[in-house]
Amino acid sequence: MTTDLRKRALLRLTAAAAAAGAAALVGCGKKEEAPAANAPAPAPVAAAPAPAAEPLKAAWIYVGPVGDAGWSFAHDLGRKAVEAEFGDKVKTTFVESVPEGADTERVLRDLVSQGNKIIFGTSFGFMEPMLKVAKDHPEVKFEHATGYKTADNMNVYDSRFYQDTYMAGIIAATMSKTGVLGFVGSFPIPEVLRNINAFTLGAQTVKPDIKTRVVWVNTWYDPTKETEAAQSLINGGADVLLQNTDSTAVLQTADKAGKRAFGWDSDMSAFGGKAHLGSAIADWSHYYKKAIKDVLDGSWKGNQTTRWGVAEGANDLVKIADDVPAEAKDKVAAIKAKYKDGSFDVFTGPIVANDGGEKLAGGVKADDAWMGKIDFFVKGVEGSIPASK
């Protein structure tokens, strides 16, 4: 009995001890799960980054193919300069070989529908369609090259190519053996007439009696017509040619005939062989970068007309041939310096038309309004001006 009682007592003590131990283990487990009193608070969740600003959509339309030389090529170099300057802040696009007229309007409206906020039209004949579309879309900014009409949301920009052609005239007269220069003209509009006249005036500073003959092709870009016009001028005695058209055809025709010529709009020295005397170029990048910057920073204004030339880096005569005499090169360099300091410009009187009438009095410097209305040939240019289409 006593033994049984002792056994039962030992069993109770053992059970109690086991229960106490289990309780202690459970208690310890609960303490380990509880957070420490001085533990740091959880880090806040980072805010989502703000969405990147949408790039400015900018579009260009070209009258000819971009190709690898000429007018549209030069404008496209300017577009590429915008991309390089502004990176992902802009998204550019272009449409090439756009006919002037109804097709221009269609292309413009399509570009607007694509969300473009600034559109550059790079040919004179784009002016009226651009003006019409600009009126319908005041939220879009328009920039028209070489024109004269503006609006609250449309500007005009141009380069002073006549400064280039005057310098080309100096070299042309120096190199001519026949005393006859040839000019392939696109359309008989002030922009082109300025260039023909300036070419002749520059040549007359070297040979006062030199003549310029003109053949019109009534197109900006048609290599076949340009070739035919160039050959016609060569057949008529011209031995140095210049053009206001977009392809390399005139230069290449001169090379095949053993004559001399100039590149136009862009550096065409790679296409002219022995014929190349220099290239009259325009660098549109300066203006395009300014226009895009103005849109991005909110300072763009409409009803503006900008015409830049040699002084602003927008024009130049480059890659003058090695065989041009140093005296002629020095004269060209001196003219460039005067353009830059403002002491000289091409159309400074007296300017006399080829019918003998005085168009600008002696000592008077023509302004842009006068130059924008030129409708005559200067003395030394043969023939008359056909009616403009």
3D structure, described in words:
- The chain is α/β, with parallel strands linked by helices and 389 residues long.
- It folds into 2 domains: 56-160 and 285-311, 3-Layer(aba) Sandwich (Rossmann fold); 161-281 and 315-371, Rossmann fold (3-Layer(aba) Sandwich), CATH 3.40.50.2300.
- The chain has 11 helices and 14 strands.
- The protein has a 6-stranded parallel beta sheet with strand order 2-1-3-4-5-11, sandwiched between helices. A 6-stranded mixed beta sheet has the order 7-6-8-9-10-12, with helices on both faces.
- A hairpin with a 5-residue loop joins strand 13 (351-352) and strand 14 (358-360).
- The longest helix has 32 residues, at 2-33.
- The relative contact order is 0.12.
Task: Give me some keywords for this one.
about 400 residues; Rossmann fold; disordered N terminus; 6-stranded mixed β-sheet; 6-stranded parallel β-sheet; alpha/beta; 11 helices
Short structural summary:
This protein has 389 residues and is of the alpha/beta class. Helices cover 39% and strands 18% of the residues.
Tell me the strand percentage band: 15-25%
CATH class of the largest domain: Alpha Beta
Tell me about the largest β-sheet: 6 strands, parallel
**Secondary-structure content class:** alpha/beta
The CATH topology of the largest domain turns out to be: Rossmann fold
Element-by-element helix/strand order: HEHEHEHEEHEHEHEHEEHEEHEEH
Radius of gyration: 37 Å
Gross geometry: globular
Uncertain parts: 1-37
Number of domains: 2
How many β-strand stretches? 14
Mean pLDDT: 90
Give the strand line-up of the largest sheet. Answer: 2-1-3-4-5-11
CATH level-4 homologous superfamily of the largest domain: Response regulator
CATH architecture level-2 label of the largest domain: 3-Layer(aba) Sandwich
Cα(first) to Cα(last) distance is 138 Å
Helix content: 25-40%
> How many DSSP H or I helices?
11
